[in-house]
Amino acid sequence: MTVTLADVAARARVSPATVSRVLNGNYPVAASTRERVLRAVDELDYVLNGPASSLAAATSDLVGVLVNDIADPFFGIMASAAQGAIGEGAAGRGGGEKLAVVCNTGGSPARELTYLTLLQRQRAAAVILMGGSLEDPEHLTATAAKLARLAEAGTRVVLCGRPPVPGDANTAALVFDNRTGARQLTEHLLGLGHRRIGYAAGPADRTTTRHRLEGHRAALTAAGVPEGPTVRGAYDRQAGYEATAELLARDPDLTAIVAANDTVALGVCAALRDRGLDIPGDVSVAGFDDLPFSVDAVPALTTVRLPLHGAGVRAGRLAMGTEEPSAGGPETVPAELVVRGSTGRPRG
Amino acid sequence: MTVTLADVAARARVSPATVSRVLNGNYPVAASTRERVLRAVDELDYVLNGPASSLAAATSDLVGVLVNDIADPFFGIMASAAQGAIGEGAAGRGGGEKLAVVCNTGGSPARELTYLTLLQRQRAAAVILMGGSLEDPEHLTATAAKLARLAEAGTRVVLCGRPPVPGDANTAALVFDNRTGARQLTEHLLGLGHRRIGYAAGPADRTTTRHRLEGHRAALTAAGVPEGPTVRGAYDRQAGYEATAELLARDPDLTAIVAANDTVALGVCAALRDRGLDIPGDVSVAGFDDLPFSVDAVPALTTVRLPLHGAGVRAGRLAMGTEEPSAGGPETVPAELVVRGSTGRPRG
DNA sequence: TCCTCGATGGAAAGCGCTTTCTATCGCAGA
DNA sequence: TCTGCGATAGAAAGCGCTTTCCATCGAGGA
After folding, report:
1. Is the pLDDT of residue B173 over 50?
2. B302: closest CA among B347, B268, B253, B252?
3. Is B193 helix (H, G, I), strand (E, B) or coil?
4. Which of A109, A124, A131, A159 could bridge across to A139 with cysteines, CB 3.0–4.6 Å?
5. Does A153 touch chain B if contact means CB atoms closer than 8 Å?
6. Which residues of chain A have pLDDT under 50?
7. What is the pLDDT of residue A226?
8. For strand D, which residues in window 15-34 of chain A come within 7 Å by CB?
């Protein structure tokens, strides 16, 4: 029925061992033999049995990329970059063809753990966790334990945009400098003269949410400006829309609103427009991430750029083992303020 | 070192066979025994060896979802929906925990084939191909052959947003009604009085591009209106930006531009704005897909809505086998015209 | 000319699980 | 009390590959 290694061996008049060696290319095989084997493979249209191979070799070519929301370009861009890096890495070396797959956790801790277990089952070669995580102690512990087991079993673990597990200095980690980015953004607003700034935050208990909020507050504190209203919501446009109403209700004299990210900012803009408020004339708006559509908003969004593509590539290479993690703990991915039309001086 | 089935069996004082049966739940095991086994599993923190299991059972729990561009929400939304459906399907049944993974082909035929092979290696339970495909005869043949082999090996194949392979009536297929959607869109423009309509098309040789263009032309032909300029480009914002310059150069009196999709439309809008043209006062703009950000464009984009989420869910269920494909060939997913502010009557 | 070593190829022992095929046990029917 | 059957559990044979020994064959070196 299905063609096996043995069939190929028989056709090429060699032993199964030789076929295996030709396919894996990690053992000297005479050129003529190799060619004969490859021809047989071709003629029989043979495809290696992955499970059998993984079982015998005790490794697999699967690389898992866990993301919080695959429908969000923030993750899409990083995942795409990582997948690209993993693909080209494979092309570079001889037989290391890796299957990079992305798994969508939907931000659910349970699904995250499930995927991690499934990946562990598959004896994945590497796992990349992208994006902030829930700050629930229980989940953190469970995740840390899972990652430790994975690492122990030989799976390379890479954290990308998620703080490193405390006490575990040896898994590669890329952390986004959300704090500094957020701080610069608020400083920019402060510099323009804003003193009443609302904040449309992301979901509670998420590292990304917390870090951005901390940066925001740090800027405020440093400038001696009192903190304005803050409301929390999901990382989507509707949350931004709703947050705006709430923010304005709490302080009708707001002159600026900082959003958890660009998507939320879009919702904020929509809400403002619907109330007949001008951006940035009446209220300035700022986002975060600098996703592709941000420049197309009207007015274009002031935001903080994160080198998502670059981070994804780096994560992919770390996962492939083609690049080594930096020696001194987690690497910081810098954030860069991008000023556009959605922020301006407050009226008055 | 690593815990195996045998270890669990020893601890629970049963045979490996029994442990396997408890884990797979497809054979009667006395409640007391089952409990003892489960406790042992828990105590030893046992995780099934996927490759071994797949090898012995000749099946795996992997479901591959191939998309053209994971950074594009068009695919992100569908993939997310499919993954959700596959996850919940697993929760519903007893042990059918499936690992839905998305693979990013980047629109490259070669990568598509590579992923298909890799999935075939893994003896994937199902494969979902999302989005239009390249219309190169050679690639079509190769893909069809690959899919046939997969199906033959027991992998369920689902096409979502891609035309069915000719001559293969038995793989499940969901086809988007791009033609009708595009036609309605252009009819809408025609109804508003537009007679000089430019078209910013997607990449050549792609089914999606062709179908949308055909619908557009059909509307034009039916109305006896001559076709305006058409330029092709990628499915991204920059392509739209550049296409606009070209379109306007070819016909400075254009009163409307139809874009291949919403992302391209955003680029068109940006280009128009940069030239000081009003939308829709000077030029009307229309997109396709109705991605989430379309409503946030200013003015909000007139577009054609495709039920991406629903299609993704359906594809996921077909892949799981929890829903049967419709009997009479491929299912058509309807497109719906959504009129918003970016289209209006031409001046004069 | 004999021996040693490098280059190749084969034999065979698993990798950890699933799944027949059997064996056992207890109880209902006769 | 004996037979038979349903319900469980175990034994053992692989699933298709990788990889560690070994065996073989020439070609130099002594």
Report:
1. yes
2. B268
3. coil
4. A109
5. yes
6. 91-95
7. 97
8. 16-17, 19-21, 23-24, 26-27
